[in-house]
User: Fold this.
Amino acid sequence: MLKKISSDSYRLLAPALSPSSSSSLNRAEIERVTRIINDHPYPNHPIQPILTKQIPLSSLSPEFVSEVLGRLFAAHSNGLKALEFFKYSLKAPKSSPPTSDSFEKTLHILTRMRYFDQAWALMEEIRKHYPDLLTFKSMSILLCKIAKFGSYEETLEAFKRMEKEIFRKKFGVDEFNVLLRAFCTEREMKEARSIFEKLHSRFKPDVKTMNILLLGFKEVGDVTATELFYHEMVKRRFKPNSVTYGIRIDGFCKKRNFGEALRLFEEMDRLNLDTTLQILTTLIHGSGVVRNKIKARQLFDEIPKRGLTPDCGAYNALMSTLMKCRDVSGAIQVMKEMEEKGIEPDSVTFHSMFIGMMKSKEFGFDGVCEYYQKMKERSLVPKTPTVVMLMKLFCLNGEVNLGLDLWKYMLEKGYCPHGHALDLLTTALCARRRANDAFECSRQTVERGRCVSEPVFRMLETSLSSKDELRKLEELKKKIQKLHSFLPPPGTQLI
Assistant:
């Protein structure tokens, strides 16, 4: 997922793509539609006819479309297939107009794969037919990716194009903040500072502007620069708020200066600034960095005392701290406590459990396998880092069948595992003379609109020998070449 600011406090500045609640939706139907889209051999065959045949427009509520696109986003699906599905959903009755969430997810999937021509065209289409869907978030998604893959000048030109051609209004400080965030998200603080100095006279900065820049300096990992900018912020007569303190606390926690983080936390109380759940969660993580599980529990117990309710993120922070302190049994107990409170574990919960058990002599590989099965029983789909970590663990421990099981589980859920996971699995399979299984995984990847790496293809060439196998490999090569013709070239025009 893009090189992004990871702090909990960032969510106060720019909420991430928020998944729709699926409690009232038919999860099986969502998975079915996701599989249809992901499994379709696009671009070898057009996808619209299969969508028309398999997915009645009457079944596409705005919430359902958003949920499917969220799955496609998490699955790193081919951007063009996601775009085709979104366009198909626009044919639904006018009584079910698309949501900004669906539009933003489609835009994010496209820009992540550098389909900038299609992204701009989609912005234009939405401007004509659904202008209310043009939000700060959609603007941020496109600008962040242009800042990631393009130059300083291209990002500024994109900002101007949005003002003149897309939004068609005079931009103010809110849009200025989105532009600054694009550079800060990519940790390009020299460029962010330059933009601020160049344009702050046109756009009157607010405290959010300063917090965005402060967060950018913090994410670079330079506590000194962060504190210097904080003092500049005060000097410019901006009043620090809870977000400001949350950013500084996180910066000190990450640099193992937990004492200074606690001092700022106490200072917040003296200034009567609201303590947020994100700040307490950050401090619990900070306790883990310095291996202080007693303080982590104290901070966790303070959450309800401050009138707040611990969420999955707070429990995950406590479990992560216990795991770092090698208290795996304590982390298991916290997970049980969490479930008793009716809070469902998420993919991060299991990621923390896997890491802790991998380092534990008591639980080790068997413990990981036990919780891997529990994750599957809950129909939870792990995120890419977890998939790669598990695949590496299974393959290095000679459990290639477990690696295949994980691969099949991801496909059943409508996901296509990351290329690195395929590299690990095919290497392990070929080493065990199971080249046909390796070929099948590679074929499934290509037919889902994702390329395989050059080393994987060369490995297949070396491992497959019969005429029939070589013929299938040649067919796969043609599909890869056709897929490449649909992928953006290295010098893609960004604006």
Observations:
- Residues 1-24 have pLDDT under 50 and may be disordered.
